[in-house]
Give the backbone structure.
Amino acid sequence: MSSMIDRFWYGRSRPLAVLAPLAWLYRTISESKRRKATQAQAGRLPVPVVVVGNITVGGTGKSPLTARLVECMRKEGWRPVILTRGYGGKSDHYPLLVKEGTPPSVCGDEPLMLSLATGCPVVVDPERLRGARWALDQGLGDVLICDDGLQHYRLPRDIELAVFDAQRGIGNGALLPVGPLREPLERLASVDFVILNGKEFPQADHRIEEFAGVEHPDIHAMVLQPATLVNINSGASLDPSVLSGKPVRGVAGIGNPDRFFNTLRQLGAHVQAVSYPDHHRFRPEDLASGALEWLVMTAKDAVKCRGFAPDNAWVLTVDARLSEPFEQRFLQQLRECAEPLQPQVTER
């Protein structure tokens, strides 16, 4: 499926150009929904709201970026709360506060992963504005960060970050279904930061002047670095370098599995790649491997395999690395957003 998408959307040509009328209809409907949702907003919330998202279909690294921003904010004394739709989960009630024992089938894989990785409150609600108000009523924090909510316009926001996979970029530059774009490229003019996942850091200046032909004052690089190799059953941890020269069965049910498999190869592993659809519900038979193979998966997939993963199953955790100038710029803008909201936000 991934190779088919790459061929249709992420090359220079547009093999689905015959569907251009549908792309025009998609744009018309999307813009109408955006206008209505924006007009229906009831004004700013009493705390800053940060939205991390993308204008392309597929995995771009939003969740690792969200986790890193949470870490940055906590170091500055903020108490962040993560808002998420909870795709792939189904609860009998919303809003839902994710706990360590919450099944991923209820809350979704990414919310559980973010809860375990960050230790901060994660609130799941398909209606993110309702989830935001509930989080504030419960006193869970003083800043809200929405993971994957760029097109959820009912939620007021103060800072927007659009994330791209640097290798895939904007693909053929067309809107769905002809190309991978959820919104026109000019949407980037209204976001605060553009983040390129997998882009090398510039030598002289930490900012990048343009992306996909669009000039923007705040384009920054992000790199996902392998952090730790953790055994799903025992909790034992190893340096990822132990995979060098080892036979590895890489298993991934994420939006862009090739990025994960390439990371394993860069560690020196001999990889047999096995990919499943994004948010795949794993079964024990999906984790079959050879006696001498290391079975390695992403953190997002691993939360769904606790309880039936074999003893040779490991999760490769990654950390998002951002430039210090970007992090300081982000924190400064966050402080500026909070100033008009005083005294509602917590004084520091």
